[in-house]
Amino acid sequence: MKQQGQWRPVIDWDSEWDQKLSSAVCKRLDCGSAVSTNISSSSSETTVWGISRSCVQSDWIVRECLWLTSTRKSPTNLEVVCSDLLTQPNISFSTHIDGVSEATQQGLRVLMGSDFTISCSILPQYPGGSFQLIFNTSDPEQKTYTLPAVNHSAHFLFSAADSTHRGEYRCVYHLYVFSHNFSSESRPLHLTLAGLKAGELKRPEPRGKEKHLQGAP
């Protein structure tokens, strides 16, 4: 746990920690519910955080239930895994060179026929993982695409936008860590289509020079 700007193992001197206490810790840290609790033996010599079981049971703030022990062999390490382990991923939209998009009350609008990219990213917490792009349309069949996370992001490229690309997009980040599968979902991104194809934008005609007619003297 990170306390006073430093990460250190947490130990339970009484070795009487249970899933109920883990659930209380996750709830008070605003990290969802407890997924697992593990108490393992340790022979390493390091400075650790001790945690008071009775303090947690008394509804105190979790960080106020920790105290810093001197450098010594810690008999056990306490590992609590909470369900909201991952931050929420981000979803973003961009068009390619000749694409034009604009924000509307219904979401983002892209020109018919233009190429575009939906990008998924997440703050760096753990290496690896994958991004799943979920695409909902008026069609009852849901479309999904999956790419591995590279530098904590993935980019889904689409070409020649048409009516089948109109709908709601969401990024879901999947990660296997601490012997469990975790996932976190982004906010939805709504995409609509404009009727004019990319490359067919009308440009104003250049105005010619005015002709001055000379009247008869």
Automatic annotation (TrEMBL):
<feature type="disulfide bond">
    <location>
        <begin position="55"/>
        <end position="65"/>
    </location>
</feature>
<protein>
    <recommendedName>
        <fullName>SRCR domain-containing protein</fullName>
    </recommendedName>
</protein>
<dbReference type="InterPro" id="IPR036179">
    <property type="entry name" value="Ig-like_dom_sf"/>
</dbReference>
<keyword id="KW-1015">Disulfide bond</keyword>
<dbReference type="InterPro" id="IPR013783">
    <property type="entry name" value="Ig-like_fold"/>
</dbReference>
<dbReference type="GO" id="GO:0016020">
    <property type="term" value="C:membrane"/>
</dbReference>
<feature type="domain" description="SRCR">
    <location>
        <begin position="1"/>
        <end position="83"/>
    </location>
</feature>
<dbReference type="InterPro" id="IPR001190">
    <property type="entry name" value="SRCR"/>
</dbReference>
<dbReference type="InterPro" id="IPR036772">
    <property type="entry name" value="SRCR-like_dom_sf"/>
</dbReference>
